[in-house]
Design brief:
369 residues; alpha+beta; T-fold; four-stranded mixed sheet; binds adenosine-5'-diphosphate; binds magnesium ion
Length: 369
């Protein structure tokens, strides 16, 4: 069914591109950029259904945050927006003032707070996925032009050289009792990128912030990352649409969520075409090339926003069979929705009864293959 028809009956569509003429910060004195000249006045808008909502542009994507529960919801939405802007300015790989930029340029070797947290989680999840998710992939990402906008196909020799600096085992992080972490690189040219985990981490942070502020009904989309707090106000679950990777005007299916996260990684989201070939923004750390396998999207359903984001990227890199096996054997608790390049859908049995399609069918992935 077409998006325009659906939009009124579902609460929100994951991955919907919001077309907004201008983005306004939420919160009374929020600066949404390290460059304060681009900061804008705040607006947290009242929604038709009695909630409070705010659009945010951060982490290179459009976001929307919505919460219910009277004036405290209004404040919580403003606080969540502020938190996202703060995380963006800490984690950006391109802003010269960010903690990650300073680490990459060896201007500092200590980080604290959220940056320390994200980096420790990144290294843990890199290990857990056998390096399919690897936060040291940045030199490769940049060589292909992602983050700089200067898209190109690097030479084999350039890729081979850059790959010698890639590997999560080249970074260690040692967090002291005071929360300050020392970051050590064993290779002088190794650089970090939180692009595949930052939005998920941010969604987890605002989830916890909402809970702390007494909110029990909220929903947010941070690019392809959806966060839900509790249920809808009437007590029913949230319904989130999974975009059809082949036709982004359409939905591949719907999943209900209750205090959970749904994160999608897809090759159709960011890419460039050259000489008839498509190059996507998700890299295979084992080859230094954009992923080109049998998957076209991976959606992870989890109680952890951080894990959901890192795993969506990792399972996309793995391809269909390895992704299924990873789900079967992992000790992390999550569900998966995989769509292959033929449009075939595969849903893990733990979430299959919450997944629905407008037409056609899907295959259920069983724990015992
Ligand atoms: P999106 O950010 O579009 O939601 P992902 O979460 O899959 O998608 O993250 C992709 C981003 O992460 C890329 O733009 C790049 O910065 C970085 N990246 C690409 N490949 C990998 C990888 N294998 N491991 C970790 N980070 C990656
Ligand atoms: Mg990700």
């Amino acid at each position: 069914m077409k998006k325009m028809k659906k939009i009124s009956i579902i609460m929100l569509a994951a991955l919907t591109a919001f077309s907004m003429a201008a983005f306004s910060a939420c919160g009374s004195s929020v600066m949404h950029s390290a460059d304060s000249s681009s900061a804008e006045p705040s607006t947290v808008a009242r929604t038709d259904d009695g909630g409070y909502s705010c659009d945010v542009f951060a982490m290179d994507t459009t976001m929307n945050i919505k919460a219910y529960g009277g004036s405290k919801a209004k404040q919580a939405v403003a606080d969540a927006a502020q938190k996202i802007y703060e995380l963006d300015s800490e984690l950006s790989v391109v802003r010269k003032t960010s903690s990650v930029y300073k680490l990459n340029n060896r201007e500092t070797d200590t980080v604290d707070g959220s940056t320390a947290d994200v980096l420790s989680e990144s290294l843990r999840l890199a290990g857990a996925t056998g390096g399919a998710f690897d936060p040291t992939i940045y030199p490769i990402v940049r060589a292909w032009g992602f983050t700089t906008g200067k898209y190109k196909v690097p030479s084999d020799s350039e890729i081979a050289e850059l790959l010698t600096h890639v590997g999560y085992d080249k970074v260690s992080i040692d967090t002291g009792a005071d929360g300050v972490a020392k970051v050590t690189f064993s290779d002088d040219k190794t650089e970090l990128d939180t692009g595949a985990i930052g939005k998920g981490y941010a969604s987890q942070v605002i989830h916890d912030l909402f809970r702390d502020e007494g909110i029990d009904s909220a929903i947010a989309t941070l690019g392809g990352n959806v966060m839900t707090v509790g249920s809808k106000q009437d007590g029913s679950s949230w319904t989130v649409a999974v975009e059809d990777p082949k036709n982004t005007d359409d939905y591949a299916g719907y999943i209900t969520l209750n205090d959970e996260f749904a994160v999608t990684s897809g090759g159709y989201q960011r890419y460039f075409d050259q000489n008839g070939k498509r190059y996507i923004h998700i890299m295979d750390p084992s080859t230094g090339h954009p992923v080109d396998n049998d998957l076209s999207s991976v959606t992870i359903i989890s109680k952890s926003g951080t894990e959901a984001d890192a795993l969506s990227t990792a399972l996309y890199v793995m391809g269909l069979k390895k992704a299924e096996d990873f789900w079967r054997t992992s000790d992390m608790d999550f569900g998966i929705i995989l769509i292959d390049t033929d449009g075939k859908k595969y849903v893990s049995e733990d979430i299959a009864d919450r997944f629905s399609v407008d037409s056609g069918s899907f295959e259920t992935i069983k724990k015992q293959a």
